[in-house]
Write a structure and sequence with these properties.
The chain has 176 residues and is mainly alpha-helical. It has one domain: Alpha Horseshoe (Serine Threonine Protein Phosphatase 5, Tetratricopeptide repeat). It contains 8 helices and no strands. Helix 2 runs antiparallel to helix 7 and helix 5 packs antiparallel against helix 6. The longest helix is centred in the C-terminal third of the chain and has 17 residues. It is elongated, with a radius of gyration of 28 Å.
Length: 176
């Protein structure tokens, strides 16, 4: 048999060079996730959701003076950055008034400050189940869930919870 020489074609050379260059290129850089908000930013977002609400529903329960005093102490401790002491004051208030939805939500926010996200979610959901289901407290409950879902990078659950935040608003009857 005769020995045939294989002719190299220009197309084969171009393909070989392209393959070599592709092998030398750096891998795709990893996709960077946006930074997570701080605990303080999460609580700020929760409270902002309620502050912007102009709902006609806003429940303010009558308080035992002891509960009011403990709640005030918790607020002062939170302002000074003593989140564990704030949580302790709220826990004492909850012993006096265990089914108070606003206290449960305050305690959920204290749990977020301390990084106890599972407890925060449990308390916010309990607050919602006992609360008015409309108005600023409802919005704080569901915004807590939104923030925790975002922190867990669960966009689908956060979008679902956002719909609940919107559902908490009850518009005023137009008056002419």
């Amino acid at each position: 048999m005769p020995n045939r020489a294989v002719r190299s074609s220009p197309m084969l050379a171009v393909a070989a060079v392209a393959a070599l260059l592709a092998a030398c290129s750096p891998p795709n850089p990893p996709r960077r996730e946006p930074p997570l908000p701080s605990n303080a930013q999460m609580v700020q977002s929760i409270r902002a959701a309620a502050a912007k609400d102009k709902s006609v529903i806003n429940v303010h329960p009558l308080r035992d003076p002891g509960v009011t005093s403990l709640r005030d102490m918790a607020a002062a401790d939170e302002q000074s950055g003593h989140y564990a002491r704030a949580a302790q004051s709220l826990d004492q208030a909850l012993k006096l008034s265990p089914d108070a939805p606003d206290l449960l939500q305050d305690r959920a926010e204290a749990a977020i400050y301390m990084g106890d996200y599972a407890k925060a979610e449990q308390l916010a959901r309990r607050s919602w189940s006992l609360g008015p289901k409309l108005g600023p407290l409802c919005e704080r409950n569901w915004q807590t869930i939104v923030e925790l879902d975002l922190h867990a990078r669960n966009a689908t659950a956060a979008a679902s919870a956002r719909k609940q935040v919107v559902a908490c608003h009850k518009a005023d009857i137009p008056r002419f």
